[in-house]
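[job 4417] fold queue: 2 targets
>>> target A
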Amino acid sequence: MGTIRTTCRPVWASALSPRALSPLVLFPLVLATLLQAPLALALPVGVHAQASQVTIESLLAAPFTSDMQAAPEGGAVVWAQTGLDGRNLWLAEAPDYQGRILTPYPEDDGQEVGSVQWLPDGRSLVYVRGGAPNRQGEIPNPTSHPDGAERALWWISLEDGEPVRIGEGSGPAVRPDGTGVAFLRGGNIWYAELDGTAMGVGEPQVLARIRGGIGSLTWSPDARRLAFVSNRGTHAFVGVLEVESRAVTWMDPTVDRDGNPAWSPDGSRLAFTRFPTSSAMTSFAPVREARPWSIRVADVDSGEAREVWRAEEGVGSRFYGITADNPILWGDGDRLIFPWERTGWILLYAVPASGGEATLLTPGAFEVEDVALSHDRRHIYYSSNQEDLHRRHLWRVAVAGGAPEPLTPGDGIEWNPTPLSNGALAFLRSGARTPSHAVVIPADEVGPRSGERARPLLARGAPGGIPADFPEAGLVVPTNVTVTASDGMEVPAQLFLPPEMAPGERRPAVAFFHGGSRRQMMLGFHHRIYYHHSYALNQYLATQGYVVLSVNFRSGTGYGMEFREALHYGATGASEVHDLTGAGLYLKARDDVDPERIGLWGGSYGGYLTAQGLARASDLWAAGVDIHGVHDWNVGIATFRPDFNPLEDPERTRLAFESSPMSQIDRWRSPVLVIHGDDDRNVRFVETVTLVEALRERDVHVEQLVFPDEVHSFLVHRNWIRTLDATADFFDRMLRGGR
């Protein structure tokens, strides 16, 4: 399954119906003959030409870029890249900004690299290598290495690039004076001294043993105090540790959930969020209103705090976050910047730290996502779908208010705005035919519509850059369409049409459903690795002759609160199945689609919807690929809420099960490929075990691809290639081979 994809398939597949094949006969045959017969599909010559250029391997040959971080001094920027050559940090420095690899991890071993914390001089940084443990305390080891894996802190200089191990741990917070780093280990706060002159590390010591789940370590500007959050399950406190005296002061503790501590520039005050306590079970259920959340500012010496802002009742009373170092940013003029959904859209507001009315900074019907504060604290850089609902672009607005400035309009997708210490702006970019890559706008050119002057930090064809032979010319440009759900709701989607279709020709079709469900597919390579690779497969399928529909179903993001918090979605009625059905009927009604050859696929929430389609409408969906999908909401809820007891509310439990694919298992007839890693922490592996057993009992054709020790969003790059390759092959056999 790791071989290069072409338009070839076994000759026997053209004569057999998937429903007529016994699983006992087909599955061994698939394993023995998959991709062995060198016979071409009966497709137009132009499609063969595209297939010779576009393979799954070539689409995933460009590394995925993420997690940009600016140095506090000197203008440098670092970011992460993930691909077949491992997971590494890359670096670009002023003034020429020629990217180069920083960390030395060439193996595709799935060990994550991130949590970057710069030292104050901008000449070295601390990072974490290794993923978070599961509930058994096991660190991800997706290659099943006999030595196991660890999650540890490392320190690396920009000059020599030789990492120095600090010790096991996570959540680093470098002291503002550069003399040490605080971090988490075993539920406690630890500290290690750093000698920047000799790159020496002192023996790590326990700094504080605090009850609860500790997180959000944040140093005061004067390096004397360390703020943190202690999550106690039903409630959470914000505390401040005085390092020298080792005394802890709690900031206005109550029964509520406090978090997101943000220091004032002078270190005398601490702002934080307060979410009213609630025992309501809201997992995979719409929540449009709640007891209003608030922002409080505490005097650090006394721990006394006052409320400086509270959300209004109704829309916006529930907090919904952004992607930022902290959802509270302390800006110039003693203003606090924060997200609020008052209008039904996630927008940015500012309020005086002393209290008062909130001022809307980003007016309009759109959603703000990535947010960063400039080094002088006077401007906010953010990504949003303002004026372009199906993409992301960068904007800038003054903390003091005024009209936002569009920085990167156009047909691209931009995210992760990273203002550099010298005034330049680095960010990540992709397009309909171009995968993610890092770019920079020089300081003297940053301004309205300056995105066209951005240049890549890694040249095309250079090590780590987009490969020179990336098959950009062979890809298609998707278009926006609207699908009418079976209950009449209008749902956005993106259509990928195969190249060189003849008039009146009918092709097989595939619908894709994203995960989350709080996600949105876009008109280009996505800013999340999971959907970046999903988009790549949709492109591949289109170049192989499929009509592909990528559906942004209700309960996703990008289209406002009411769309995201869709009534009766998920475990409260599965209303998104109306969108699923509407997508199938949309494809079936197209004059370029063979109505008997329509498949669907998706991962996580998309796997759940794939299973819903096959369980509820096998007459519409001829085949599906279910990647780690949820099949019983009562199991899925318990994964995220260990305290969930289905016996407490029998009616809720009944509705959750009736909203699940397993409730309709007797109607499932179409063949399915299931794919899952057995160390999945988001969707339990038992969900797939239970499904396969039930389908076998009903003589439904099932194929499997299982990754021992792999997690939810696959960490090993070659596992992504195998997944996409297996999915494409399955559709070739099931949808091209005759039903």
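>>> target B
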Amino acid sequence: MWVAIAPVTGFTQTTPEEGAPASERTEVRIAYSANTLFFGVICYDSDPSTIIVSDSRRDSPLSETDSFQIILDTYLDQQNGFVFGTNPSGLEYDGQVTNEGQGTGRFGGGSGGGGGRQQQGSGQGLNINWDGSWEVRTQVTDFGWSAEFAIPFRTLRYPQEALQTWGLNFQRNIRKRNERVFWSPLPRQYNLYRLSMAGRLTQLQVPPQRNLNIVPYLLGNAARSASATNGMPIVGDVGFDVKYSVTPSLTLDATYNTDFAQVEVDDQQVNLDRFNLFFPEKRPFFLENAGLFGVGNAGTTELFFSRRIGIGPNGMVLPILGGARLSGQVGGNVNVGLLSMQTEEVSGVAPSNNFTVARVRKDLPNRSNVGAILVNRQASGDLAKSDDHNRTFGIDGRWGIGQNATINGFAARTETPGLIGLNHAYSVRYAYNSQAWQHDYRYDEVGKNFNPEVGFLRRTNYRSFNGRVNYTFRLGPDAPFNLHELRPHVSSNFFWDFNGFLESSRTHIDNHWEFKNGTQIHSGINLTTEGVTEAFKIMPSVIVPPGTYDHQEIQLVVMTNQGSALSGQLYSWVGGAFGGERVTIRPSVRYRVGDSFNTEFSLSRNAYDLPGGKFVTNLIIARTSYSFTPRVFIQSLLQYNDKADLWSSNLRLGILGQANTGLFLVYNDTHGLGSVTSEVAGRSLTLKYSHFFDVFR
């Protein structure tokens, strides 16, 4: 099939030598049938023995391995797209891009380009937890490595016209040189998700969408709490998900008796301040198209946070009866989303609730858009009170200025029985990103009674300002010590209450030293202020009294070459805190054998010496995975948290089919330390099987 097709070539570097031709030749051939889009890729390498392959698990990061990625802007709106990628082991990597990968809440932006295995925030920018039905095959040869992608049209969304033009770009990583190259050239400050600078795939004849997928599951579970005196009862369950293409660009998803037993447990965290911890959503049904529903500042002020659905106090799972989601485009670059979910009541814990979210966003030229969102929670059933509801109303927008600048923001208010006034929140942000300079400034305000019960607030009742200035020195090939870049920067953030009292501030002065092999050293100082108005327990036996605490600290970060078989990272802070001293270290070590075996050990240790007492906390996390093939794996996650008096283990065996379905065997075990018995302690064993049925295939 490929012999008669002229290849796409001519890739250009963004790093290490911006604008230079790629050091190795890359050829891409494109073909399509009545129902599938094909890409044939040859990645030539003058020394194939130096090819680096770091992992073969689905959606593992592609930034520290030789890899190849494709982005498709199927609506040609220059803002949204689908990403597909692989490495020489045949890893399957896919995701959905919104707003050119720029989530509105990740202050300072992110690097993108195939990084990060765990979804953060609500999927704004890049949602790597989207799992499409497609295939890839790879082969390492004496001339390099090759890959063949087969992407069914039914996996994508696109307009109804029979003849179409899509945005298109390719990225190849040549890890031995820490080199990134693109087919459609990009300035070094941008990544693959910069769809406004992508190339074009023209004269593409696409089939009309006929898509009906059904994914039923069977589940068996045996669970026992630590306080139980009986045996380990075994229960079974069934349920299903359905996906139907109403139009080529509008999809209806439905779910009944929704279950997420195969999802990896949360990483534990240690909270040593007065504010809420953020745990990201990991459940697949909620993560698909999450970027459309993401409004606010991710991880700090989110108007809709799907983790509020089906998860109750202390992480208790609340049964989800079912629900549906309608999402996509309705013409004229208007994106719509409607989500409705129903949970069951749990006696003594929570009434049944209906959660409804309505979202509309109009994409405009030059990376601009405007939108609105409504979020509603309504309790029902015998346990519900007559006025047990909560609503959030919001508008948001983004304005692209030239090629390098944007202004974006949102405004919202909530409606909660019994809370009157100061129920608003808004945010305005200006960002400028050139090859040398990066500027980022944001003002936020959150009222005392702003209460998005189906959203997330890290803190409330404040006005804040955040600012960051960064300059990038790109050094030449003859730079001393093999230095690649220097990135000096200054950032500050301030939080005041509505009376003008400074609750928190931090000024960070730093320089990042990056070497040609990817090793980095960050050396900085922090000037901090904490204004405590009410005493709080930082530990059960240590109280921080009211007062204003001004301190300084030094910060050192070291990251070795993450593409090596053995790599490490060290984050450290030494300085003052709450009128005393603190030392925080967070080392981690990762070791891999080929693309099959990966293990990582990390420690987070805090040592505080405060006027109210001394204490030390330790959080230890150990991950291990072995991949028999890219679709068959076993993983373990062990965690020890002496502040929460917990240790836990999570073991998962996965045999995957299409779209991340398949057979999962999951064992969870949580115990208190010593004589302590935690309310979440217990063990469970779950066997789940799901199958992907493509009805019209």
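[job 4417] complete. Note on B: Helices lie at 284-287, 290-293.
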